[in-house]
Amino acid sequence: MESPRLLDAGEAALVAEFGTTVDPAIHDRVLALDDALRAAPPEGLTETVPTYRSLMIHYDPLVLDRDDLAERVLALAARPGAARAGAALWTLPCCYDPACAEDIGAVAQATGLTVERVAALHAGAEYRVYMYGFAPGFAYLGGLPRELAVSRRATPRPPHPENALLIGGGLAAVGTFPMPTGWYVVGRTPERLYAPHRPDPFPVAVGDTLRFEAVDAATFADLETRAAAGEFVAHRREAA
């Protein structure tokens, strides 16, 4: 098994990089190392942050020696990884009506597909949650169908609605807060991937799987009202 490349990120963080592509096998190794460090954290380790292809490990250099940490990381990374325990399969309702999917026509034009085909491809795929970042609950997803692999915009579009489903650069995402973006808005889910009033503000975990279930505009409006009142409108079950 190939060892990860270790990169110093300043004086208090070490990055273990396992590859250069968006690949479930690479991500599995990232999560396996994350789980191993969390299960038996060395004194001085302060935080771990998994990404698509690497794990950033924050530590206190006055407590934990960098070379000792590197040695432990390489030893743990050499072990066979197991699937992350408790990974879940989520089904999120999604509306592809143009009122919720402001850019779906632009994506259809860029790909040569119909709007209906763009929606069907997006809803028919299964997505892995690779990482959180950029904003609270902003979930970066892999698994976008190749037919929808449009490049990002040359210039950002105006702020998208909350809980927008985004695609761009061959990837997908769920954008929790309105903000300008170079990605394309192809739908919207009423579910909140960031809900600070809940015991767990981030219900979806890195390593989980997402599916989207198409709903019409009337159903979306009903679910949006219920979700705004605090109800879970997504469905969760343990992954096989």
Automatic annotation (TrEMBL):
InterPro entries: CT_C_D, Cyclophilin-like_dom_sf, PxpB. Gene3D superfamilies: 3.30.1360.40, Cyclophilin-like (2.40.100.10). Keywords: ATP-binding, Hydrolase, Nucleotide-binding. GO terms for molecular function: ATP binding; hydrolase activity. Residues 4-204 form the Carboxyltransferase domain. It comes from the Bacteria. This is Allophanate hydrolase. It comes from Methylobacterium terrae.
